[in-house]
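TA notes. Do not distribute before section.
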Amino acid sequence: MSTTTLLLVGSAVFFTILAGIGFVTSRWIGHTEDFLVAGRQINWYVVGLAIAAMAWSSGFFALFSKFAIHFGFFAALSSMIATAIGYYVYGVYFTPFARTLGSQSIGEFFEMRYDVKTRTVVSLYLGLAMMIFLPATSLGVAFILKGYAGLPIIQSATGMILIIFVICIAGGLWGAAITDLVQAVIGYGTLAVVFGLMVTQVGGYEWLVNNVPEASTAFAFPGRFGFGLGADSYVTWILLWGAMVLFGSPYYWLLANAPRSDADAKNGFRLASAMVFFLAFFVSLLPLYAYGAVPEQFQLMGGQVPAEGAVGVVAHMIPSGVGALLMVTVIASNVSSQTTTSLGGIAAWSRDVYQRLFRPDADPHEMLVPTRIITVVFFVVGWALVFVGDIQALLGVVLTILGISALILLAGALSKSITPTSASSDRLRWTSL
């Protein structure tokens, strides 16, 4: 059976399961609170697995594969470890603050701390960031599938977005959370099997040192990363993944408010932190196995495969069935993580912009239909951005927006010195810059 056939069969089985999840969870939705925060009834382990599933996403894997191959093992490892620490800090120290406020979205906090204008401006930008994140990560999957099975990029990305849309429109955060749980179990299990195959069939650390091109740089600290504030810096990426993206993203606020209790919220983030800590070593080493085994296939050595597509090369180094399953988990990771992030953007536009400005007296039942209409607009525009085709450019906009949001959020939570005027004007000025 060809790799394409295995991939299609495996994907069909997996997405049949996801469709069933969307159908079942759609029956749990009676109003917008069910849709956006799952009625505040999610268990801690579901929250933890949902967060961990976001870390095992195509965007993380593609970016950190590039870090490992271009800049060295520690460049990739440090960013993932920073993410794990960030989850722990957010869960233990910040979720009680977020839950005590009683706000379902991050935008509601901005209004409580600043004013309506700040909430509107920030929420517009956050929704935009999440919408741009959707085509960026879907393109990441499409490039990986192109390297693995030669599938067309635009069609693959379009298929990703369509599947995510179906889950969002049907099941809301219930559908996203349960999908994340399924994906995390399958994804982390498959990754452990793949890593075990690499160690037993290819070799251990000594093999990597002897076969990875320029291994003295790849496994030496600090590698090709520096300590300034530039693009290739430990400081930049540790701050970005360990704090800015985490505190600036609306979907972590949603997940902080979805559990039944403060203890469940904390334990969920603790579980995610532990899982991502171990994931960091897998994600940092697997690309180097591919680079060490067939360096001639990579662009750095004159080949055609970009460093971001290393996972596709790994899939060809293992038994075909396991390789196809690895590709299915790459697809699944994008679906699960982007379902949750998309809901965060939709919540920003629905609750923090539309309801606040146009229907402030609408109850949760009355907001359900407008929220779903906003969902359709969100996905149609996001799909159109697939044709930009430049992942780095799309992610550059996303990370800029989230970083500024995190600074305004933390400044507002920790200090009274920042004013409503400066918060909203700084958002416009710095994002434009």
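Switch to the second chain here.
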Amino acid sequence: MGSPSRDKFFTMINAKLLVGLAVVLIAAGIIFTLLPHEAHEAVTFGLPLPHILHFVMGFVIIGMGFVCLFSSLKQGIFRVPIAPFKYLLKKPALVLILVLVIAGLATLHYGTTDVQSETEFDLMKAAAKDCTNPISPGQKCLASFVEMRGGRHASSNDPQKTAQEKIGLVGKYGEDDGFDATEYLSTWNYNNLPAHERSKFYQETKRADGSSLREYWIYAEDKEIEIAPGVFFPAWTYNGQVPAPTIRATEGDKIRIHFTNKGTKPHTMHFHGFHPSSMDGSMPEDFVYPGKSFTYEFDADPFGVHLFHCHSVPLKQHISKGLYGAYIVDPKNDIRPKAGQELVMVMNAFDTTLDGENEVYAVNTKAFYYAMNPIPVKKDELIRIYLINLVEFDPVNSFHLHATFFDEYRTGTKQEPNAYTDIVSFAQAERSILDVTFRYPGMYMFHAHVSEFTELGWMGFFEVTE
């Protein structure tokens, strides 16, 4: 037989273990109860248990913890005044019943919510069945949705109805900030400027072999630009605009760019195409620091639709802030159909909150601009689009044109089309030449086939006339 002191010692140890177990059970029960439904499934090894049962299990675990706690207190080894709990200690079943009542109330609350959700889903399925049944009258379809929404469609406080009725563009662009998105479409080599003004930024000299020396004066500068009506963005620009002025040459021409950095960060110009490594503009030794200049010189090759951008670091910041532009090289012997109109489209986006996610999407910078100002084209006229994706932070962008198809020349480096389609998808820096004609007059939408991009600004219209 053990001594009384030893028995008391083991009793105390057991009681303390019981308290520890009680604390673990109560904590585990609380955590389990508060977990989201997806986490519940992970904890229960993926068992398809109803959400209600998870709450019941959580409260039962908590109840077991309290039973262990009261049992340890009943042994009297802790100096805790248990007189107020004496009645409960004599009736542990009452504690369990109390916990189960609380669990039941929680189940009732959450169970009602789940049932309501299931009921709404069933009504939605019934409504969809009525509306897709070809022999079902339209009134029955409407009545089903009225029932599903509890008559909310008739309420003037229905936010969905209000949003649908007021859908459309809001606001207008302010004063001229030096960038005309309509003019940009068909502008390259500063052909939009008077001769005396143009010579400040572009000069062309014929060479003995018949090719041309094309010289450009380009500078980087910080500038605030308007990217949506009333929304301004602190951009880094080439020549004060985003995208940069388009550079266009013929295969075999010599390109010479006098670049000056008037900005506040180191910048470069990196071209997609053939050039010596000393002209690549990508390494730290290539960085052009504020107030400094550098001259890039290389042959225009290969033909196609290309791009240029700053390659300073962090690269994602220099691109997302606006340092990029289109670089077009025409084939020396062009056998493609002659285009009636040529358009440059640079798909871009802007991170206005500087959190690494874009809030505004566009083609040629200004959100919804071509919805407000549709692009005029002629019926049966061949339209050639030089399309480039320069969106940062999103891995894929796309271009979809309604009610017609187009020939796609991938990267423009072949003179035969690669595809005949109505949608193309690009990663950053991917590009294509698209040849399209419209059979019928009317208004035709083009947009990103990522719905979020469309609703945040990347959409417009072609207005086709006879």
